[in-house]
Amino acid sequence: MTAARAAVEILKREGVEVAFGVPGAAINPFYRALKEGGGIKHTLARHVEGASHMAEGYTRTKAGNIGVCIGTSGPAGTDMITGLYSAIADSIPILCITGQAPVAKLHTEDFQAVDIASIARPVTKAATTVLEAAQVPGVFQQAFHLMRSGRPGPVLIDLPIDVQLTEIEFDPETYQPLPVYKPAASRAQIEKAIQFLLDSERPLIVAGGGIINADAADLLVEFAELTGTPVIPTLMGWGAIADDHELNAGMVGVQTSHRYGNANFLASDFVLGIGNRWANRHTGYKLDVYRGERTFVHVDIEPTQIGRIFAPDFGIASDAKAALELFVEVAKELKAAGKLPDRGAWVAATQERKATLQRRTHFDNVPIKPQRVYEEMNKAFGPETRYVTTIGLSQIAGAQMLHVYKPRHWINCGQAGPLGWTIPAALGVATADPESPVVALSGDYDFQFMLEELAVGAQHKIPYVHVLVNNAYLGLIRQAQIGLDINFQVNLEFENINSPELGVYGVDHVKVVEGLGCKAIRVTDPNELGAAFEQAKKLAAEFQVPVVVEAILERITNIAMSRTADISDVSEFEELATEPGHAPTAIKALKV
After folding, report:
1. Can you tell me the distance from the alpha carbon of 431 to that of 437, in angstroms, rounded to the nearest whole number?
2. With bands split at pLDDT 50, 70 and 90, how would you rate the model's confidence at 508?
């Protein structure tokens, strides 16, 4: 068979069922093999970067998924670099397959012949241009081994067109995936880590995205419950423990944090970090404040992550699931022996803060204040909802005010944060799990970056609801410019000559969305948001297309965050909740 056909057969045997991409001349032999081989559903994207983000969304939705994105030579590969960067930054395995000029032409500046492997190498676990057709099976086999082993991440395989077409000897029936390697903690390491916890009075667990990747959320909750230890999920670990669990102590950070989360963290004396990176949006740059007099134990699958930001008192290189299995085992033995201390008073104190330190969400202002949008989202979208978002004030406010109850139900591009990520990622999420409600969240600029991908949802019947908060501003950048005393090149307002009813809000998103074959609802009154969300759910179910709900916001709202990158110094720009009616969908009723 051709090397391209061998590659397709390997994809199927490695569990690939879906691919996202855009064909082109240099990758057409692979597409022929994809068609002839069958068994893999292909979704045609409108932009190759969009295909890479669809693959990300697909991977992030279910344990074991590996999203595949495909493009031709030259700019297709360079377009997918952003997706690869996003994937490696968040430890997400995706496979990027690109076409390439013939091997003999690689040195001649042939049409669309670019050294994509060299370009992609810094943002992948491996990037290879395959020069010998007989090596194709081995390169694909190694790619899946690398993506799944150790810290997960993406791989790029570049296939010259003549390599794809060359016939090789390959027997798919005897193919076997390579064993996956993951480091595992030892019993002695776990016993030492637990001794730190036993010696503390006010311990916390910081639960990172590695727990989600390892499909170990149940073990985390079991360990927390056995030991009575409150949990701080990171943004990437959000959902590892339900927001309404009595041991959920809130999120910490300089942006996507809860008032009570930061207060609980600052009151702690020991922190056990599992599968987290100590990312700066979580710790802030004032590490002396974050570290304080606390002791730290850090468990991470990647040995070089331990000590990267600061040296813990004890570090363990281990897959989160392997470590948590031992944590649970040792904790059960200690409980049976009566050696676990009672943490009831400490847990009660964390929940007291949760009931008193809240932000206000209920406003009746017109134009709409963004806080009200998230309040209505909490009412309209239940615990089965998978939220998808990337960056901006919309994402920061959403993380402060929305509620998440399950792992992989907050699907967020964490470290890279590229504008435009949300629409294609949501399509990937909805493709991976068509049974669960998917709700995307974007500001107007994120939405405009890759809105052409909505046509993919219309063409391939991929329904989801997209909440678009529109203030005709680069809101996060405007807020970041306050400290520089400027408001420069961040204003998106203009009077649209074709839609004068919009005033200064510029782009007519409803017309654009409808032109792309989807449905859209514009809301200007906060009291109509709930009905709009209900209508959107019905329209998505009826027409099987993305449905956009656009909320016209007040032009300027400053969302709570630290201006000094210090978790003890978060500025609350808006009025705080002082009575229960101010935050009716808070996870706990406000205690005054």
Report:
1. 11
2. very high
Report the distance separating Cα 202 and Cα 343, nearest Å: 8
Cβ partners under 8 Å of residue 296, min gap 6: 270, 271, 272, 273, 310, 312, 313, 314
DSSP string, 382-429: -TT-EEEE-SSHHHHHHHHH----STTSEEE--SS--TT-HHHHHHHH
CA distance between the termini of the chain: 72
∠ Cα 82 84 88 (to 5°): 120
Distance CA 473, CA 500 (A): 18
Residue type, 288: D
- Residue (of 122, 130, 15, 117) closest to 67 by Cα position: 15
Arithmetic mean of pLDDT, 207-224: 98
Q: Can you spell out the DSSP letters for 474-498? A: -HHHHHHTGGGT---S-B--B--TT
Which residue, among 463, 412, 456, 403, has the nearest Cα to 433 in the 3D structure?
Answer: 463
The mean per-residue pLDDT over the stretch 390-397 comes to: 94
Q: Taking the complete model, does pTM exceed 0.90, yes or no? A: yes
Amino acid identity, position 248: N
Catalytic positions are 22, 48, 419, 474, 477
pLDDT score recorded for residue 336:
97
